[in-house]
Amino acid sequence: MMTDFVSAEWVSSRGDDLRVVDVRDAWEYDGLGHLPGAVNVPFDSFRADEHGAESDAGDGMLPDEGDWAELLSEAGITPESDIVAYDDHHGVFAARFLVTAELFGHDPDRLHLLDGDFSSWQLERETTSETPTVEPTDYEVTRPDSTPLVGPDAVADAADDPDAVLVDTREDEEYDAGHIPGAVLLDWRNLVDNETRGLLPQDEALSVLEAAGIVPGKRVVLYCNTARRISHTYVVLRHLGFEQVDFYEGSLTEWEAQGRPLETN
């Protein structure tokens, strides 16, 4: 069970049995056009306030459960819906939507990230400015029995575990300025093909990961600042078949708020 990447051809072939979600701002959705049939669920609408990263429940930047259910209900989504999400930033915002859905219990096998973003799509395929009419649903959140979420103590332990690799998915400059002790650096964008704006070919992606010490046999623990960038890396790793991928939702916002140590380069 996992969220995966799907091609533009796959999305086009599915027709009405797929709920397409555009997570760009409303002005982009309305003014620049969108995929036919796509509903708009802007990124800011499913992000908690910054103070959420200190939540005792470990919810970090996740939205309120009721707010999430209302958003999906208004978008005409049911727990049985197959969803494909996209943005215009190589998929990083769309990945956050999909990870949020997974953490709130939507079947990961029904969650898909468009391989390539809006800019890639519009080069060869039809877009529209028409907002689809959708029938609201009564979406109910059913939290799964287990999730990839981990807290700061588990993150600290991972740095000393030879069977685990702690991964910082931010940019080089951010990593150098301060990172969790023992973390390796993997800028999430290094897994993106600049030409296609989608995921690197599998062999290339695996080579990038291996160079950073990230291999399928190890448990991978991900963090960034506010859990946006790790959402993309999480989806990539699960798509590539990594079985143990932990997700530090609180990330550095929580880590620093608790006064925990940082390393600098």
What do you see in this structure?
The chain has helices at residues 8-14, 26-31, 65-74, 92-103, 118-124, 152-158, 172-177, 202-211, 229-239, 251-257; strands at residues 4-6, 19-22, 39-40, 83-86, 111-114, 164-168, 184-185, 219-223, 245-247. The protein has two domains: 4-124, Oxidized Rhodanese, domain 1; 152-257, Oxidized Rhodanese, domain 1 (3-Layer(aba) Sandwich). Helices cover 31% and strands 12% of the residues. The longest helix has 12 residues, at 92-103. The strands form two sheets. It has a five-stranded parallel β-sheet with strand order 1-5-4-2-3. A four-stranded parallel β-sheet has the order 7-6-8-9, covered by helices on one side. Residues 126-149 are annotated as: Disordered. Keywords: Repeat, Transferase. Its EC number is 2.8.1.1. This is Sulfurtransferase.
- How many β-strand runs? 9
The computed structural class is alpha/beta
State the name of the first-level CATH class of the largest domain. Alpha Beta
Radius of gyration of CA atoms, rounded to a whole number: 18 Å
* Chain-averaged pLDDT: 94
Would you identify the CATH H-level superfamily of the largest domain? Rhodanese-like domain
What kind of assembly state do the chains in view correspond to?
single chain
What characterizes the major β-sheet? 5 strands, parallel
CATH architecture of the largest domain: 3-Layer(aba) Sandwich
CATH topology of the largest domain: Oxidized Rhodanese, domain 1
Give the total of domains. Answer: 2
Pfam families: Rhodanese (PF00581)
Domain Rhodanese: 14-130, 160-264
Enzyme class: transferase
Region (Disordered): 126-149
